[in-house]
C-alpha cells in the first residue's frame, strides 16, 4: 500500500492520473526539464510509464509494482522514473506507442512501459503491462528492471546503434506524398475503403472483425456517407446502410451501452457487444451522439431517439462541470473491482421490482440465462421492447411503460452504490467532440438543454483554454496548461461549425476563424502539405508526426481538412481550400495503401471532389427557426445550413453578400460555384432541397 509519508515529484500536478501516484514509493517525476536533466547528469536510463486514470490495467500494475517498496527501490536505484498522463500529453503517447510497436512488433496499449536512453530520450526496450512475477509468458517486473539496467550499462554501443536505426525509421515513417507531385485526386480510395470494410464486417452482430469490438465511429460514419455517395453501386449503398444500422442497433442493445444510466463504455470484450471494458470515455460518447443523430434522421427509429436522450442526459448529469466544461472519463473500477458499480444479482433485482416488472426485466435483460460477469449479471437488452411485447402478448405501449419504470427503479438503487472514480480534468479536444455531439443531439430532439450544454462548454473553453490566440490542452483546479495539439484546433473548429448550424452566435464564427488562422500559422507543413501534430514552437521531441490515420479519435489532419473545406466554401476563403487540398495530396499515398484506416480523410476527399451544398437563411425569430428545421430535417451529409439572424454583426468573406429580401426569410442555396436565385417561400425551399438531394 502507498506510504503517506513518502512524497514524490508529482505533487502540485493537476492530472488525476498523476495524482493517483503521488504517494507511491517510486520517485516519480512528471515529464519535464528537471527529470530529463537529472537523467543525463546521472547517466541513468529513463523509465517512462504512460497511462490514464480510467485504465484498469494501469491500476493493476500500480497496485502490484509501483506501490511495492521493494520494486520501487529497484526503480529508484537504477532509473529516473517519469509518469505521463496520455490524455494530457498525447504527443508523447503517440511517439512512444509507435516506438514500442517498432521495437517489439506487438500492438501498444496502456499502461505503456518504455525504457529510454537519457540523452535523446530514444527508447531501447519496452512493453505494456508487466506482472510482478513471471506469468503468461511475461517476465516479472522487478527482475526485468534489473536486467534492463544491466543491459543499459554493458551494451551502450548496441543501444546507440539501435537508436540510430529507430530514429531513421521515424523519419521514413511519415507516409506522405509531396503535395506538389500529386497531379489529381479521385474516388478510388472511397471505393476501395467500402470493399475493405464490407469484407471486415460482422454480418451477424455488427461491427468489424472479432472480439474485442470497438465502436469505431469514423468507420460507421463512413458507411452512412457511402450510402449517399457517388462512388459505389446501388447494391453497395444498401450494403453500407445495413452495416451502419446493424452495428448501431446491436451496440444500443448491448452491454457496451449502459442500459440504465446512458452512455457507452470504451469497448466490448466479446463479439456480441455484451460485456464491456467498463470505463466510459468522453470522446467515444461525443462521436457516437453524432452518429445516433444521423441514424435517427435516416430511420426515425425509437431506439436511436432513446440513445440520444439517455446519453445526452447522462452527459449533463455526470460529465459536465458547474463551470461548463466536460469531464474526461469514468473509471472502469469501483471498490477495487472492475464493473462492480454496474452488475447485479437476481436477488438484488427481485427485491426492487414487483412481480410484473420483475418478469419483464428477467426476459428483457436475460436474467433467465447464466450469469455473464464473474457470477453476476451485466445488463443488456436481449430483445427489443416490441419483440418482448409480442412474445408476452401484451400491448407494446403498456409494456414500454412498465419496462421504463423498472429501469428507473434499478437506476435509483444503483445510484446509492459507491461510484467509479471520475477523471475531472477538462480536455480541449475531447470537449470539442462532445460539443459537437450535444449540439447534434439537441438539434435532432429539439432539446434546448443539450444545446445550452454545448454552448456552456464552448464558452468555458474560450474563457479558460484560449489564451493569447492559442489553445491549451487541459484544465483542472483553476489551472490550464500544455500547448494545444492539432486535435485541439481541428476538433474545436469542427464543433463550432456544427454548433453554428444549430443556432447562430457571431462570437462562434469569429472564434472559428481565429482557430483556422492559428492552425495555419503554427501547424501547417507548407512545403510538403498536411499538418504536424505539434506546433512550430513546441518542445522538440524525437519525432514530429503528421497523423493521417484514425484511431479511437479521428485523425486531426482529416477533421481539419474537412473543416477548412467547409469554412473555405462558406467564406470564399481560398487559403483554407488550398490548405485542405494540399493535405489530401500529401496523404494521397497513405490513402491509397489503407483507405479504410483513413475515414476522416476520406470524408474530406469526398468534400473536395463534390463541394458541399450551402444553405444560407436570413431572417429573424420563429420563422427563421422554422426554415432552419426544413433544411435540417433529413440526413443530408453534404449540406451546410446557417440560419443567420438579421441582427448578426460578424459576417466575413462572402457571408456578407447574402442580404435578406423583403420577405420574412430569404434562402440562398449554393452548390459548388453555382447559386440559386433567392428563395422567399418556405415551400419553394423544400422543393428545391428535395430536387437536389444531398
Automatic annotation (TrEMBL):
Signal peptide: none annotated. CDD domains: SSP411 (cd02955). Coiled coil: none annotated. It comes from the Bacteria. InterPro entries: 6-hairpin_glycosidase_sf, 6hp_glycosidase-like_sf, Ssp411, Ssp411-like_TRX, Thioredoxin-like_sf. One of its GO terms (biological process) is carbohydrate metabolic process. Residues 7-170 form the Spermatogenesis-associated protein 20-like TRX domain. SUPFAM superfamilies: Six-hairpin glycosidases, Thioredoxin-like. PANTHER family: SPERMATOGENESIS-ASSOCIATED PROTEIN 20. This is Spermatogenesis-associated protein 20-like TRX domain-containing protein. It comes from Nitrosococcus watsoni (strain C-113).
Amino acid at each position: 500500500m502507498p506510504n503517506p509519508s513518502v512524497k514524490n515529484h508529482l505533487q502540485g500536478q493537476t492530472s488525476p492520473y498523476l495524482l493517483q501516484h503521488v504517494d507511491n514509493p517510486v520517485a516519480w517525476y512528471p515529464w519535464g526539464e528537471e527529470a530529463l536533466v537529472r537523467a543525463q547528469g546521472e547517466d541513468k536510463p529513463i523509465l517512462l510509464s504512460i497511462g490514464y486514470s480510467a485504465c484498469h490495467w494501469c491500476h493493476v500494475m500500480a497496485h502490484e509494482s509501483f506501490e511495492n517498496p521493494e520494486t520501487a527501490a529497484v526503480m529508484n536505484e537504477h532509473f529516473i522514473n517519469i509518469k505521463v498522463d496520455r490524455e494530457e500529453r498525447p504527443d508523447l503517447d503517440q511517439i512512444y506507442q509507435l516506438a514500442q510497436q517498432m521495437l517489439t512488433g506487438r500492438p501498444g496499449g496502456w499502461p505503456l512501459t518504455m525504457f529510454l536512453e537519457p540523452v535523446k530520450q530514444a527508447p531501447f526496450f519496452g512493453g505494456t503491462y508487466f506482472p510482478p512475477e513471471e506469468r503468461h509468458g511475461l517476465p516479472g517486473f522487478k527482475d526485468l528492471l534489473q536486467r534492463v539496467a544491466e543491459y543499459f550499462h554493458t551494451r551502450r554501443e548496441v543501444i546507440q546503434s539501435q537508436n540510430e536505426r529507430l530514429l531513421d525509421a521515424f523519419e521514413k515513417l511519415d507516409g506522405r506524398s509531396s503535395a506538389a507531385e500529386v497531379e489529381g485526386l479521385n474516388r478510388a480510395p472511397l471505393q476501395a475503403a467500402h470493399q475493405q470494410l464490407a469484407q471486415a464486417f460482422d454480418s451477424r452482430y455488427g461491427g468489424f472483425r472479432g472480439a474485442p469490438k470497438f465502436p469505431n465511429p469514423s468507420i460507421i460514419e463512413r458507411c452512412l456517407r457511402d450510402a449517399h455517395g457517388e462512388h459505389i453501386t446501388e447494391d453497395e449503398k444498401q450494403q453500407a446502410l445495413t452495416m451502419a444500422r446493424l452495428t448501431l442497433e446491436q451496440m444500443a442493445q448491448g452491454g457496451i451501452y449502459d442500459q440504465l444510466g446512458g452512455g457507452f463504455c470504451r469497448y466490448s470484450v466479446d463479439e456480441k457487444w455484451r460485456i464491456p471494458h467498463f470505463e466510459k470515455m468522453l470522446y467515444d460518447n461525443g462521436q457516437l451522439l453524432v452518429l445516433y443523430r444521423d441514424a435517427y434522421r435516416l430511420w426515425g427509429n425509437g431506439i436511436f431517439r432513446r440513445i440520444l436522450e439517455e446519453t445526452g442526459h447522462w452527459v449533463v448529469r455526470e460529465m459536465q462541470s458547474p463551470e461548463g466544461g466536460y469531464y474526461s472519463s469514468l473509471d472502469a473500477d469501483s471498490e477495487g473491482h472492475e464493473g462492480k458499480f454496474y452488475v447485479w444479482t437476481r436477488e438484488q433485482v427481485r427485491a426492487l421490482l414487483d412481480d410484473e416488472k420483475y418478469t419483464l426485466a428477467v426476459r428483457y435483460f436475460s436474467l433467465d440465462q447464466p450469469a455473464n460477469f464473474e457470477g453476476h449479471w451485466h445488463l443488456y437488452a436481449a430483445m427489443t421492447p416490441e419483440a418482448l411485447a409480442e412474445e408476452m402478448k401484451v400491448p407494446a405501449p403498456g409494456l414500454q411503460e412498465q419496462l421504463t419504470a423498472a429501469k428507473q427503479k434499478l437506476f435509483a438503487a444503483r445510484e446509492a452504490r459507491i461510484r467509479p472514480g471520475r477523471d475531472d480534468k477538462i480536455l480541449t479536444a475531447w470537449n470539442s467532440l462532445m460539443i459537437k455531439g450535444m449540439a447534434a443531439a439537441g438539434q435532432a430532439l429539439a432539446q434546448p438543454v443539450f444545446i445550452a450544454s454545448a454552448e456552456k462548454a464552448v464558452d468555458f473553453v474560450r474563457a479558460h483554454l484560449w489564451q493569447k490566440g492559442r489553445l491549451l490542452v487541459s484544465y483542472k483546479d483553476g489551472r490550464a496548461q500544455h500547448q494545444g495539439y492539432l486535435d485541439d484546433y481541428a476538433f474545436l473548429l469542427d464543433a463550432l461549425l456544427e454548433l453554428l448550424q444549430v443556432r447562430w452566435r457571431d462570437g462562434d464564427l469569429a472564434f472559428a476563424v481565429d482557430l483556422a488562422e492559428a492552425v495555419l500559422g503554427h501547424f501547417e507543413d507548407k512545403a510538403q502539405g498536411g499538418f504536424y501534430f505539434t506546433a512550430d514552437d513546441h518542445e522538440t521531441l524525437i519525432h514530429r508526426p503528421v497523423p493521417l490515420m484514425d484511431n479511437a479519435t479521428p485523425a486531426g489532419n482529416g477533421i481539419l481538412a474537412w473543416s477548412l473545406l467547409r469554412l473555405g466554401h462558406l467564406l470564399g476563403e481560398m487559403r483554407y481550400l488550398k490548405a485542405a487540398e494540399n493535405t489530401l495530396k500529401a496523404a494521397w499515398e497513405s490513402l491509397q495503401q489503407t483507405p479504410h484506416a483513413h475515414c476522416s480523410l476520406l470524408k474530406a476527399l469526398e468534400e473536395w471532389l463534390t463541394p458541399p451544398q450551402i444553405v444560407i437563411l436570413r431572417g429573424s425569430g420563429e420563422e427563421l427557426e422554422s426554415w432552419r428545421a426544413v433544411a435540417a430535417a433529413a440526413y443530408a451529409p453534404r449540406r451546410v445550413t446557417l440560419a443567420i439572424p438579421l441582427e448578426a454583426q460578424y459576417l466575413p468573406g462572402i457571408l456578407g453578400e447574402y442580404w435578406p429580401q423583403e420577405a420574412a426569410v430569404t434562402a440562398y442555396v449554393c452548390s459548388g460555384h453555382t447559386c440559386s436565385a433567392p428563395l422567399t417561400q418556405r415551400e419553394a425551399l423544400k422543393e428545391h432541397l428535395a430536387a437536389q438531394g444531398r
